[in-house]
Design brief:
By secondary structure, the chain is α+β, with helices and mostly antiparallel strands. It contains three helices and eight strands. Strand 2 and strand 3 (41-48) form a beta hairpin.
């Protein structure tokens, strides 16, 4: 079912102030950056061994990340688990009583198909299912 921890999403106020810690202090390679308009975020991808770190900067006060930072401050936002057949995984989670935020997969950063589980069903952790093609 779960192939690996694909990435860890980290909410930051600005990439400009946060990136130097990861790239200059930790010496993690920056893999790229993109804006995900549907989520109102700018994303920086860093390689940390077999897992990526995904720094998430809100581009609007209406962004879920902006609301997260306002409520909880900067920090770990979600853990993304790499899966095959995301539609089957969503169905399986529903069958096991897990409340899904996303009833159907949607497109996330890097073109991945994603779906989030509600933290009330996962001991307070926002868990993302992530299927990458190719």
């Amino acid at each position: 079912m779960i192939k690996k921890v694909d990435h860890i999403g980290i909410a930051v106020r600005t990439l400009e102030t946060s990136l130097p810690f990861y790239t200059e202090v930790l010496n993690l390679p920056l893999l790229g950056m993109e804006v995900v308009e549907s989520q109102k975020v700018r994303v920086a991808f860093l390689k940390a061994g077999e897992t990526k770190l995904e720094l998430l900067e809100p581009t609007s006060e209406e962004s879920p990340i902006a609301k997260f930072i306002e409520k909880r401050g900067e920090g770990i936002h979600h853990v993304a688990l790499g899966v095959d057949s995301i539609e089957e995984r969503i169905k399986e989670m529903n069958e096991k009583g897990i409340r899904m935020i996303d009833k159907e997969p949607r497109i996330g950063a890097g073109g991945a198909h994603i779906a989030f589980m509600h933290p009330k069903s996962t001991s307070g952790v926002l868990v993302e299912l992530c299927e990458k093609k190719g």
